[in-house]
Amino acid sequence: MLKINDLQVSYGDMAALKGVSLEIQEKQFVAVLGSNGAGKSTLLKSISGVVKAVSGEIHFKGKRIDHLPPYEIAEHGIAHIPEGRRMFSNLTVLENLEIGSYIPEAKKERKKLLEQVFSIFPRLVERKKQKAGTLSGGEQQMVAIARGLMQKPEFIMLDEPSLGLAPLMVEQVYKYTSQIHRGGITMLLVEQNFYASLDVAEYGYVIENGKVILAATSESLLANEFVKEAYLGI
Fold first, then answer.
1. What is the pLDDT of residues 52-90, one digit of tens each?
2. End-to-end alpha-carbon separation of the chain, Å?
3. Which pTM does this prediction carry?
4. What sign for the dihedral angle of Cα 100, 103, 104, 108?
C-alpha cells in the first residue's frame, strides 16, 4: 500500500531523514520506533505532504504522491493524526469531528461516519457538546483519532498517541487503535514507547539519526539484543 524509496528531508542545513526506505502492506499494522529527534514525526509529515522531501519517492497504492499538496494526499485516503492532538479547543467535540469529514466523499457520509466513531468511542457521545479544550488528555486523543476516522481513510498515521497520557489511558488508546485496525484500516504508528507499540503492531522499523537501522517483526525486535539494551533498558 505504501512504498518509500530513499527519502531525504532537511530543515535548512539539518538533515532529518537520510535515505529512509520502507514498505507497508495493505491492512498491516506497522510501528516506526526510535528516540526523540530520530526523524519519526518528519517521516509522517513527509507522507502527508506537510514537509517536502529533498529527494526520494513516496508511492501510495502504486501512485507517486510526494509531489502532491496535503489536501490531495488526504483525498487519496491518508489520515494523519498529529503529535499533540491539535484540537480546535474552542469548538465542541462534535464540531471537531465534523471538521474531519471535509473531504467531499466523507462529507456525503458524515452521519454514517459519526455513528461509526461514536460506536468505537462511546465516551465522546457524552462529551459531544463539550468544548474540546476542556477534555482530559485521553479524551482529546480519542477526539483526534475519531476526527481522522471521519475522513474515511484507508490508511491512518498516528504520531505519538501515548504522549502525556496516564498508563491506563495509554492502554485504552491502543485498544481503540487495534479495534480500528481489525476493521480493515492499514495503520502506521510512530512511538517512543517500544513495549506498547510492538504489542499492537505486527512489524516495526527502528529509526536512529534519520536512518532505518532495524526492520523486523514485532517479536524479533522485542528479542533483539540491541533493542533490549538501547531502548528497553534490559
1. 999 999 999 999 999 999 999 999 999 999 887 788 889
2. 35
3. 0.91
4. negative
